[in-house]
Amino acid sequence: MSFLTDSINGVDITADQELLWSAFANLDPSEELRLLRDRITQLERQQTVNSPISSDGFDLLAQNGDEFGDADTLGDRNEIEEEMKMELELKEVKEELKGMKQLVGELKEVKEELKGMKQLVGELKEVKEELKGMKQLVEELKVKQELKDMKQYKDELKDMKPLVGELKEGKQELKDMKQYKEELQDMKQLVGELKQYKEELNDMKQLVRELKEVKEEVKDMKQLEEKLKEQKQLQEEMMKEQLKNTKESVGRKLEQIKEWNSNKNTAAEMKRLNMEENLKQQQNQTEKIGKNFITERASKAFQFKTIFNLKAMIEIV
Questions:
Q1: Given 121, 147, 172, which residue is the final one in a domain?
Q2: What is the pTM for the complete model shown?
Q3: Element (H, E) at 11
Q4: 87-102 per-position pLDDT tens digit
Q5: Residue 73: is its pLDDT beyond 60?
Q6: What residues make up the domain containing 42?
Q7: Which of 6, 205, 206, 275 is most buried when burial is the number of CB atoms within 10 A of its CB?
Q8: 3-state class of 7 per DSSP?
Q9: Is residue 88 part of a domain?
């Protein structure tokens, strides 16, 4: 059963709870509280108009329902029931009002919290904007740091370029030193070979000096040979002259012997023998001179051959 009330701000207040809550749903909490208070006042006024019975009387009547059975008329009974219902409804409304007050308090707190939340959301938005700006600043700082690092890297690279050049020079010097070391080893080997060659050259010089001496000796030997040839030729000429003279002398003596043959056979024979002996001695002496000359010539030929062989060996070396 519904009770129509005055229209406040275009909203009808009813006794039906569902309609009441649907009406309160679109109102401000303070407006809802005011409407509930008006509703309570209206119910109390209506209770006063209909019956002087208090709420305690309603409780007593509820406990002693048998007393209402003797009522004179059905209308009075209905009126009493209506008043009891109104009383119960008033209690419910009061309970609801109490809950509404608590709800309004909680709602206020929620609104305050919501207000704080809105403020917090605003602050959060500001923080987000600041964070966005900070992120952008961080990115800029990163870029600046990267640029700084790049600049530092370029500076380090610039500083490293001379070092790289020095390193290249060091490598080249090391390569040159290695090559110089190899050349030095080759030079040492060459010096050793030169020393050996020098020793051999000294030996060769000594040999050349000896060869020169031999040549001088050969030259002297040639001169001696020429002299010997001249002496031999002179000796041969002298021997020929002596033989010729001897033959002439022998011929003359033979002629004399023939003349003296008759008287001096023995003496002539002795002379002839003496002359033959002299001739033999002269021939032996001539042959001895020839043999000595041949021996000396063979010795000189051997020495000359030895010198020639030494010269050939020197040329081969």
A1: 121
A2: 0.23
A3: strand 11-12
A4: 888 788 778 777 777 8
A5: no
A6: 7-121
A7: 275
A8: strand
A9: yes
